[in-house]
Amino acid sequence: MGRYITRRLGQMIFVWLGVALLVVVGLRMTGDPVALLLPHNMEPDVIAALRAEFGLDRPLYEQYARLVLNFVRLDLGRSIYYKQPVMKLVMERLPRSLLLAATALAVACLLGVPLGTLAGYRRGTAADVVISGSVVAAQSIPSFWLGIMLILVFAVRIPWLPTGGSRTAASLILPAITLSVIPLARMTRFLRAGVVDVLGQDYIRTARAKGNTERAVLFRHVLRNAVRPAVTDAAMTFGRLIGGAIIVETVFAWPGVGRLLMDAISNRDFPVVEGGTLVIATLFLVINLVVDLLYPLFDPRIAYD
After folding, report:
1. Domain-by-domain residue ranges, the chain?
2. How far is 24 from 19, CA to CA, in rounded Å?
3. Which residue from 154, 174, 221, 283 lies 20 to 30 Å from 256 (Cα-Cα)?
4. What is residue 143's predicted lDDT score, i.e. its pLDDT?
């Protein structure tokens, strides 16, 4: 177990360093952020001073090393646009993103588990066809289009819910539903595949031969074993939702890290883009590691030597 943890930590650090490198190189290829802050006729000395203030005059490898070391010290520098510490900006927005991701995942699980179970248990029936077709259609819907349609229907035509923001609890409903569509489809597909696979196992036939009711077979044997892969995928999906909520947070003006990153990209605010991206990447990697370590609890057949 200790050897496995060491190897996974090494892989996680390697991936994190790769993400940091891609962020640094990719941002520098977009242009000079100082050009957005100062007039075109500004004195060269002023431009050079501002570039030096944010470390943009340093070689690329030095900027990369500085970013890595500063992140380890939890010091992501100051925002070029907001003139505030980046860590403060990200930490203020992160709870909102976590709340949105958790709510979307809860909606996906509450709907995906019964739908996937029904589709798998009634394989080949009309219920299976309708659920499977709906899942495929749901995965094809762009999040921004779905969000706009929900706003038009439930905030404009039928003014039940706010169009955006986070002033009330009702403001969470539309963005959470929008963000939950793709994980809901994944959850349904995972459960359906798991139920179909488990139903073909010998111990299910044995359980039925012993006189167990179909309800007992379904809940005691089928779901207990079919839900394990779906639980693992749900935990990993949570990390993806945090980073993948950029479009949804922008459409609904949800004050999360995703919207902060989108604004920072528009303003070429390098420190905020770097810091926000690395915080999200770190959360994703840590969640994946925790899921890997806890997986034997869901499936006793898995053991890390």
Report:
1. 95-256
2. 9
3. 154
4. 85
Contacts of 30 (CB under 8 A, 6+ apart): 268
pLDDT on residue 39:
65
Q: Has domain 95-256 been given CATH number 3.40.50.300? A: no
CA 147 to CA 5: how far, in whole Å? 40
**Residue ranges for the chain with pLDDT beneath 50:** none
Please name the residue that has the structure tokens 């029904």: 118
User: What is the pTM (predicted TM-score) of this model?
Assistant: 0.84
Could you count the other beta carbons within 10 Å of the beta carbon of residue 235? 18
- Looking at residue 37, its pLDDT comes to 66
pLDDT of residue 186: 87
Distance in angstroms (rounded) separating the CA atoms of residues 193 and 298: 17
Residue 3, exposed/middle/buried by CB under 10 A (0-12, 13-18, 19+)?
exposed
With beta carbons less than 8 A apart as the criterion, state whether 97 and 256 touch.
yes
Residue 77 DSSP class: -
The dihedral sign for the CA sequence 181, 185, 188, 190:
negative
Whole-angstrom distance, CA of residue 60 vs CA of residue 185: 42
Virtual CA dihedral for 71, 74, 78, 79, nearest 10 degrees?
A: 70
Burial label, 254 (beta-carbon count in 10 A; 0-12, 13-18, 19+): buried
